[in-house]
Structure formats: C-alpha cells, structure tokens
Task: inverse folding
C-alpha cells in the first residue's frame, strides 16, 4: 500500500511539473520576470522621478546651517603709550551660529521652463524605450516558444522513422531467417535503426537547450521543466497597405527617434538660454553668539532676519554657451539623420518581412503536399519490402525523403510564424 501511495504521488508531481504552458502565459510571465524588461522599467522610472519642478530649478531651496568654533589665544600687545598687555594663560573664545536660508531663482530667461519640458519629454522617451524593449522580449519569447514546438515536432518525426525502421528490421530478420533476403539487407536495416536512434538522442538534447533559452527569457531557473503546445497555429497577417499606413504612427523605433528629436530641440533652447540674466532672492533667519574669557567684551549675541537679492548677468563665459549650443544643434541634426535612416531601413524591412511571409506561405503549402507524397511513398516501400519486391536501398531512400520533408515542413511552419511575428512587432501589434 505504501508503494502504491508513493507511486501515485510521483505520478501526480510529474504531471504537475509537465503542465502545458500556453504562449500567452509565457508572455505574461516574461512581462513580470524578464530581467531586460525589469531593467528597462527601472530606467523609465528614473526619467519619471527626474521630471519634477525642483529638478528643473523652478522651486526654492531651504537650508539649515550651523557653525561652532573654539579658540585659545595668547595675547601680547605693546601700545603706542608704551603700555604692554600680556594675557597669559590663554584667552578662551567660543563662537557659534545658526541660520535657516531660503534661495529662489525667480528669473533665468525662461530656461527653467524649457528644462521642465525637456524632462517631461525624456520621461515620455523612457516609456517609448520601455515599450520597444517589451516588444523585443515578446518577439524573443515567441521565437523561443515555437522553437521548442518545432524541435518536438522533429522528434516525433524521428520517432516515426524509428518505428518504420523497427518494422523494417523485423521484416529483414524474417526474410533472412527464411533465406529470402541477404544478410546485408538485415545489417543495413539495423544500421539505419541505430542512426535514427542517435538522431533521437541528439534531438532530445536540442529540445532541452531550447527549453533553457525560453526559461532564461521567462526569468526562471534553466532546469525548469517547460511543456508547450504540440503545434504551431496558423499565421494571419494584416493587409500590406494597412501596415504601411500604420508603420509611421505605431512603429516603436520610429516613435522613439521622433521623441529623441523633441528632446534635442529643447536641449538647443536650454543651451541658448544659458546666457540670460538671472534674478534670485535669498532670505532667512540667523542667530550667532561669541564669548571671551578675557577682554572688554565677554559675550556678544546677535539674531534677526536676512533678506537679499542677486542679479547675475553673464558677460563672458569663455565661449561655453556658444559651444554647448553648437553641440546641442549637432545632436539635433544627428537625431534627424537617424530618423530618416530608420524610416528607409524600416520600410525596407517591412517589404522584406512581408515578402518572406508570402514566400514561406507558398513553400509551406508545397511542402505539405510533398510530405503526404513522401509518407505514402514510404508506406508503399515498406509493403513492397514485406512482399520481397524491393530491397533496403529503396526503403532507405524513401525514409530519407520522408525525414527531410518532415524537417522542411516544421521549419516552414516555424519560419512562417516568425515572419508573422516580425511584421506584428514592426507595427507594435504583439
């Protein structure tokens, strides 16, 4: 009874560990745990934290300051009247003070408002960069997920070949025992059986490696057992003209580059306003006290309000304002060049991706027909071998044709799905 219970627990745990993970579940897990997404989210949050009026210089600052000094002085003074003052031992003096000061820039030529707008645009830029990273990770998750499906489909085909080889070996053994087949036929059947078995071992390793790649994208331990669906769903892509209309307003890379231009324009304005006069006010309350162990003044205390203002007019900055403005304008020009270059590249990539999708569709349809023909040919060859109407060479060639067609079929299905995913990524449709 104890053994039965332990066996039941083992089977239950194995089933739980092998629970199928859907593509949507994999994507949701990546959005929560993928480290590239988590880092990108934090970087976007930094831009959000920086977008404050205080960081733009629009708010006052208040500081509480305190000072304290203790000194011992030996005093020796010779007066013009020939009197000598010699105070020894040392004279003890203590000084301490405290103040609370407010400093506020009231006017700087509008630079603080430009800076605030730039910080807001940088926050928006951070969100766009985060969205682009999310799309990239989703694409990688889809690729890794369906790569496991592809590798498992390949293993199914290899196992089917092993099953055919097993039947072929039995037929060859029976024919050899009956004297109707040469031993070379039996040996070749066993060789092909061993090769197919080796291929199965290699394919299982490929599946394990593919699972590790997906586990890393999902932020999981590489040893995690991940089971996926057993087929690649049909691919559907929006109309080509519709995608061309969407690409300008939805492509993550283009939106990011456009926002970078907005930031660069504000950086130029910010640099130009560095030459403007600045008016600031200061105010606060102070308290100070000093004591002396000797001398005419034993104790001195003062306190009260302080109010003042500062007008600063830059007359000469060693060319720094001009240099910063020139650099900002150059960076703006670079941003504009990058946008135009990206437009051309993305347009070309969209055309290539769409052409690739159409090509993979045609190839997949042809290979589906070829797969049916190869399977039928293999079945017929095996039956002919049973009847003694053919040899191992024909069966071997039929099996090779079937194995190659099966591999091409799964690859075309995978390539078609990835072409669809790439197109959807380009229009932020994932």
Result:
């Amino acid at each position: 009874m104890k053994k039965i219970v332990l066996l039941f627990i083992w089977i239950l745990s194995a089933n739980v560990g092998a629970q199928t993970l859907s593509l949507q579940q994999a994507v949701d897990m990546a959005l929560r745990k993928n480290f590239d997404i988590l880092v990108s989210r934090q970087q976007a949050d930094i831009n959000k934290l920086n977008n404050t009026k205080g960081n733009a210089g629009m708010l006052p600052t208040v500081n509480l300051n305190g000072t304290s000094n203790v000194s011992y002085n030996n005093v020796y003074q010779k007066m013009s009247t020939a009197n000598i003052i010699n105070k020894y031992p040392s004279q003890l003096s203590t000084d301490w003070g405290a103040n609370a000061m407010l400093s506020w820039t009231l006017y700087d030529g509008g630079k603080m408002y430009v800076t605030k707008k730039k910080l807001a645009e940088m926050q928006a830029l951070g969100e766009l960069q985060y969205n682009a990273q999310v799309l990239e990770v989703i694409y990688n998750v889809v690729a890794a997920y369906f790569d496991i499906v592809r590798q498992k489909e390949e293993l199914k085909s290899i196992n089917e070949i092993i099953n055919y080889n097993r039947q072929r070996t039995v037929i060859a053994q029976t024919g050899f025992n009956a004297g109707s087949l040469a031993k070379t036929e039996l040996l070749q059947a066993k060789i092909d059986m061993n090769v197919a078995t080796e291929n199965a071992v290699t394919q299982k390793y490929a599946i394990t490696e593919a699972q590790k790649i997906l586990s890393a994208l999902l932020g999981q331990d590489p040893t995690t057992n991940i089971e996926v669906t057993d087929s690649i769903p049909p691919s559907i892509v929006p109309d080509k003209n519709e995608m061309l209309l969407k690409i300008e307003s939805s492509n993550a890379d283009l939106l990011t580059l456009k926002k970078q231009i907005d930031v660069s324009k504000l950086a130029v304005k910010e640099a130009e306003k560095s030459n403007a006069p600045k008016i600031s006010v200061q105010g606060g309350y102070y308290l100070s006290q000093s004591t002396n162990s000797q001398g005419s003044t034993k104790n001195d205390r003062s306190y009260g309000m302080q109010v003042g203002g500062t007008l600063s007019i830059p007359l000469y900055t060693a060319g720094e304002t001009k240099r910063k403005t020139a650099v900002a304008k150059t960076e703006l020009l670079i941003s504009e060049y990058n946008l135009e270059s990206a437009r051309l590249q993305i347009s070309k990539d969209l055309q290539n991706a769409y052409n690739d999708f159409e090509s993979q569709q045609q190839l997949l349809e042809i290979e589906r027909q070829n797969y049916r023909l190869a399977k039928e040919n293999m079945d017929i060859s095996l039956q002919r071998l049973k009847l003694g109407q053919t040899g191992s060479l024909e069966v071997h060639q039929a099996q090779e044709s079937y194995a190659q067609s099966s591999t091409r079929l799964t690859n075309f299905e995978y390539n078609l799905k990835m072409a669809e995913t790439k197109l959807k990524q380009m229009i932020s449709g994932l």
User: Anything to note?
Assistant: The beta strands are 61-78, 84-107, 278-292, 299-312. The CA atoms of residues 250 and 427 lie 5 Å apart.
